[in-house]
Specification:
two-stranded antiparallel sheet, Macrophage Migration Inhibitory Factor, 70 residues, 2 helices, alpha+beta, elongated
Length: 70
């Protein structure tokens, strides 16, 4: 049973999560030649205060960006 894990920022719209799960499932079905029923998709949502890039929290990057544009 293939498992697909996607980690990223929160997705607010439930329909967007449904589309993501459906499209990932379809891609796995094509790649593995297995039925949809055996494909597992996990969506792990990470808040910007819990992720850093280059040693800097994403929430701090977002603050800096908004201060520069505002």
């Amino acid at each position: 049973m293939p498992n697909i894990t996607v980690e990223g920022p929160p997705i607010k719209e439930l329909d967007a999560k449904r589309r993501l799960a459906k499209e990932l499932t379809k891609a796995a079905v094509r790649a593995y030649g297995l039925p949809e029923e055996v494909i597992v998709v996990l969506i792990k949502e990470n808040l910007p205060e819990n992720v850093s890039v280059g040693g800097e929290l994403i929430i701090d990057r977002l603050k800096q960006k908004s201060e520069k544009s505002g």
